[in-house]
Amino acid sequence: MRGIVLAGTASGVGKTVATLVVLRALQHAGYDPQPAKAGPDFIDPSHHAVALADDRPSRTLDPWLSGAEGCRRNYWRGSGDVCVVEGMMGLYDGTNSTAHVAETLGLPVVLVVDAAAGMESVAAQALGFREYAGHAGRDVDVVGVIAQRAHGGRHEEGIRGALPDCLAYLGRVPPLSGLEIPERHLGLHLGEEAPVDVEALEEAAEHVAVERLVELAREPPPPELEPGAGDETGTETGTETGTETGTEPEPPRGATDVTVAVADDAAFCFVYPATRERLRERATVETFSPVAGDPVPACDGVYLPGGYPELHGAELAAGGTLAEIGDLAADGVAVLGECGGMMALCDALTDVDGETHDMAGVLPATVVMHERYQALDHVSLEARQGSLTAARGETLRGHEFHYSSADVAADATFAFDVTRGDGIADGKDGLCEYRSLGTYCHVHADSGAFDRFVESL
Predict the structure, then answer these.
(1) pLDDT tens-place string over residues 219-249
(2) What is the CATH number of the domain that holds 343?
(3) What 3 state SS string does 333-352 have?
(4) What is the set of active-site residues?
C-alpha cells in the first residue's frame, strides 16, 4: 500500500479538511484510500471515517507510543491501495513530529499551506520546509503542495507558477463555508457530531490533482516482525525519540476466557483502533453506555476510556452506571480508567460552569475543569508497584492532554512515577484503590498494557 503524509506548516492551517478532501478525491477517482493519523490524536480520525462513509478505522502512527516497528505494523494493518496520513501540528514540531513519522515510514510529504493571502510566498514557505529537513537532520522528502483556502484563476496560477520543479502543485482547497469544523477544548468536534458538509467536500475534491498525487506516493518497507509479535512497543526500550533498541520479540499472546466491559459512548470515546482490536483478540468484549445509564455487563473487568465526561456530568451522575461501577470496584472487580475514565472513577467532577457532579467514588480525588489545558505531551511512566497495566519497574509510554486537575487525598496510592510529563499530582500518575487504576496517561495497545490488564483478570 502506497502512502503520503499531509503535513502542515503549523497547527490550524487546515490539515484535517485537506485530508478529508484528498480522501474523497481518491475515492471518486476509483482508488481505495486508507486514512491514518500521525501522533496520538483521537479526534481527527473520527472525521476520516465519516468522510469515507465506511467503518474502516484510521490507523494511529506514533513512534513514541508504538516504536518504529510498531508504527510500521500499524500502517500495514490498514487496507486499500493509497494511505493518506494526516500530520500533527507543523511538520517539524514536537519530539515525535510529523517529520519523524514520515521518516520512520519512508513516506513522501505533501505540505498543506494556508494560501488565503499569498501566492509566491506559498512557494517560499514550501521550499523552506523542504530545505529545512537537512538542517533538522531529518530524512524527509517534501514533494508537493496543496494550497489551502486558495481561489482559482489568477490566485491558483500564481501559486502554481511560483513553485520550483522539485515541488509539485497538487491542487487546492477552496474557501468554502461548508468545510469549516467547529472547535472546543481538546480540539475539533468529533466527526459524528459535526461532519463536514458533503456537498462542500465533493466540490473541493474536484480541485485535487489525484493522479499526480498517487504517482508521488511510495510504499514503505514492511515491518520486520509479524503483527502481535510484540517487539519494543510502547515500553521504554529505546531513546527519547521513541525508537527501539532491538528487544527480542515475545511470543504472540492468545485469547483468554475473560470478559471485558468497555464503556462506549459520547463520554468515553477515545480508544485507538489497535486497542479495540487487541482487546477483542484477547478477550470477549461487551460494550455499554454510562451516559445512557446502561447496567454494566457481566464481566471480569471494566475499561473506561478517555473522552468527555465533563460534557455529560449530569447524565453520568443520574444514570446509575457509575454508582454500579463503584460497587463493583469495592467488590474487587478490576476497573481501568484512562484520563476521562479516571475522572469518572473519582469522587466528583466540577465542570467549567461550576456545577459539581457525583462520579463513581472509587478513587480518592475530586476533579475540576479549567478554561486552559493543564497538560499536553508524550509521557513516560515508571511503575512504582505492580498494577493492572505494568509490573513493578516497567516503564510505559503514552500521552496526556487534559483541561482538568485533580485534588488528591493525602493518603492516596499511586502506581507510577512520571519520568516525562505531568501525571496526576506531585510527579505521579496511576491512582489505585481496590483493584482499580486510573491514569491521566493514555497508552496504545503496543505498550502491552492491555495485554497485562486482560491477563490480570
Answers:
(1) 998 887 544 443 444 444 333 333 332 333 3
(2) 3.40.50.880
(3) CEEEEECHHHHHHEEEEECC
(4) 339
